[in-house]
Design a protein that fits this description.
Structural class: alpha+beta
Distance between the termini: 15 Å
Strand content: 35-45%
Helix content: 25-40%
Number of strands: 3
Number of helices: 1
Strand order of the largest sheet: 1-2-3
Radius of gyration: 14 Å
Shape: elongated
Mean pLDDT: 91
């Protein structure tokens, strides 16, 4: 089994606040069969305005890993 995570962001998606939106997807993947099961998913607005798409994507990946992927990985290792 393997834990797979994806993140995405839009850059300045909210015209009123110029804040970007984060999105993430976390799944458990069976290498042998190629099947996967969703563990967590969601979206949230970033707390600051990003100056580039690269910054928005990096913040989105950081949030997805720190708040979702690492806690689930620690739970599975216990």
């Amino acid at each position: 089994m393997k834990l797979r995570a994806w993140s995405d962001a839009d850059w300045n998606g909210d015209a009123a606040s110029t804040k970007s939106t984060n999105g993430f997807w976390l799944e458990l993947y069976a290498i042998a069969s190629g099947r996967s099961w969703p563990i967590a998913w969601g979206s949230s607005k970033q707390t600051a305005t990003s100056s580039s798409i690269a910054e928005a994507e990096t913040v989105s990946a950081s949030i997805g890993i720190r708040k979702e992927a690492l806690p689930v990985q620690i739970l599975f290792e216990a």
